[in-house]
Amino acid sequence: MSQAASEGAGAAAPPAAPALRRAATAAARTGVVLAKRALMLGVLLAVVFAAIELLPGDAASATSERGESAADTAARRHLLGLDRPVWERFGDWMTALPTGDLGTSARGERVTGLLAAPFPNTLLLGATAFALTFAAALALGCRAALHPGGTVDRIIGFTSGIALALPEFVVSVGLLLVLSLWTGWLPAVTLTAPDGSPASWTMLVMPVLALTVPQAGWNARIVRGALADQAGAPHVAAARLDGLSPRRVLLRHALPGAWPAIATGAATSTGMLLGGAVVVETLFNYPGLGTVLSGAVADRDTPVIAGVVACTGAVISLVLLCADLVRARTLGARP
Amino acid sequence: MNWTRRQALWAGGSIGAAALLTACGGGENDAASSPADSAGTPRKGGTLRIGALGRASATTRDPHGTQGNESDYLIIALVYDTLTAPGLKDNTVGRLASGWTPSGDLKTWRFTIAKGAAFHDGSPVTADDVVWSLRRLRNTPAGAARLPGIKAENITAGGKDTVVLVSDQPNAELPLLTRLSTFVLKKDTPDKEIAGAPGTGPFKLDWFRSGNARLLRNDKWHGGPVHLDAIEVTMFESPQAMANALLGGQIDVASNVGAVAARSAASRKDIQLVRRPNDMAMPVVMRAADGPFADVRVREAMKLVVDREAMVKQVLSGYGTVANDILGTGDPAYAKDIPQRSRDLAKAKKLLAEAKFDLSKTYELVTTEDVPGLAESATLFADQAREAGIKIKVVKQESGAFYEKTWLKGQLYTNYWGTNDSVVFFASKTMVTGAGQSEAGWSDPQFDAVYRKVIGTADKKARATALRELQQIEHDKSGYLLWGMADGIDLAGPKVRNLPKLPGYGRVQLENVWLTR
Fold this sequence. Notes:
The complex is a heterodimer of chains A (335) and B (517). Chain A is mostly helical and 335 residues long. Chain A is 76% helix and 0% strand. Residues 1-37 of chain B have low confidence and may be disordered. In chain B, strands 1, 8, 9, 10, 11, 12, 14 and 19 form an eight-stranded mixed beta sheet that branches. Chain B has a four-stranded antiparallel beta sheet with strand order 4-5-7-6, with helices on one face. Chain B has a three-stranded antiparallel beta sheet with strand order 17-13-18, covered by helices on one side. Chain B is α+β, with helices and mostly antiparallel strands and 517 residues long. The interface between A and B is large, with 58 and 54 residues.
């Protein structure tokens, strides 16, 4: 602000104007980024529509009952609008989207109704896993970077390497065996309460851990790498030569510069977390979007699949936007 | 319904997990009640927690809709009553109908509604309600297959508690057709209110959410006392997750969980394994109308090539029985006395030579992964056929494509039927000339004549003789190679008593189940 004021003193405009203008351009830039993300989401949904079109069979044949005649299936195909060109159906679906209408599933249920309970459940699962991933990665990455090349650094590097290589499926089965079937500490699967959410918080523990372990491994390496890059930077070297404690150098001088890389790594994890949720939710019977999606793909149920993609896509876009803003703030560059 | 097109998406994973679980199963202590309790007197009370397979995207609340989910069918079947139900001794027993009488020509059937039958809101069930419900069912896209031979306008009320069904042809087994999806709702229930519409079943809906539900006992059920206070249904996407929930004590019953999960639970003494024989047929269908399998000698050779014991052992993990190329194995009238066909490669080769079967060609066997074991059965059969010099290549097709391109048309494909329907049911649906689902395109005048005799004969003894003859012709000539029948498999915790042992849809009749303390 002081800088803005001194700049403004010599200009004809009132002193606060440049700051306002700058805020306005920042907002405009954010708007541009938002628009870009929205466009990307639109393209993604178009790809989804096209991809389902390319799969063999369609919703009418996939959800037909054995014994239905070809004429009945054709009638249902007409009813579902599947006899119209794919771009037309896509257009209809997209124009209804802003009003919050996600269309009707091949079995005649409202898609918004189908996703009403599972989406918040997946968000809860994903957000918890994300927070845990972020905290664990930051703690491990910083601890490792404190004494580069030390024993702790090597152990963390090794275990995080293994963790990131483990598929969610393997982690899930391992957790299930140890925490549930052997020890009986945690319930093996998630049961649903009358309101559609998990019946107990204990049922969240294993799905969250199964998602967190691989992603925490991946992000810990990113944090460690970003801090290593920063260690060579002149201002960090200067701080070290000033005799500051390693901890202070790390947290106050190296970490701020590492934020963009860390934020980007964490943001990309969002997609991985939501993707991994498809597997994890099935294994633990967690009532989320993953279970809806896998069934919908089998049914060629385009509105349901597109609805799931729109929901998760919006979340991922939002997180990516946040990462962009972190980047812009730190580097002062155009977002 | 049982005809779900379940993708075997997680099959590989489940098998891996199952192996691990088997390894760790032995150490559990089982302080549960001893099996001797099973003979005890039923105790009233308790909540049965049952798991059933289903997919969140495919949930439906309409009793007359396409029930792709077992969980939905289970909930619907507990809340609503069908006119008749599957039985053990008699293939068809009464449910909402207390009795039925045919006319002399076996075309007109009068069903009497059970005394005291009432909806959950207290209003009595009238013939109008039944007529409205059956017509609604008949007018669904699959209605013609669900009530074959009965036009909607031929379903009428014949008084306050009598429903009259008139069939296009004589049909001695018409009540069998009303076992599966003839769920009765109140007349003129609007589509919008279907989800919460009162039924007449042994349980009433407390809540339903995303495929999961809680049901409460209907104290005034016309069918007699119900033991359980409540049933909680949890929907599971994968059989392995369902088995894990059972092993972990989170549910009491894993319904229709399959052989893989059964194996993984086999080492646990406190887990009851309920095998329901004759649950699913997985025949190989050979096109009899034209093509390489049109010659009856070729079809017989194929039936002689298969090693049935090996199929049951490997494809079904032993949870099944060898079959004799006749569909309807659960029918009390099934001809057990027709000698079992077994492997005879020499005879098969001789028949193939006589029929001048081209052994230089490779034949495609089309299959799907709709039900566990189906694709495996095709692969194993192809291996066995190779020993007789027949080259078979297995082609896996995606379910939708299979029903569009191969079913009813293909020359050699696998198929499955998941109900304990009668011999006549399969004959009328799939084998008699002009049948709606003539899967093998088989047409045999002698078979047709005997079939007409069977469905038009009211006299029990004469009918039994004709039925025996019908099965002999089917065994000798039809396009079905039925190597075995898969058991239906449920797993249950130690407290559960009196689970249904019936194949097919019998598994959803839980009104006699009770829990020990």
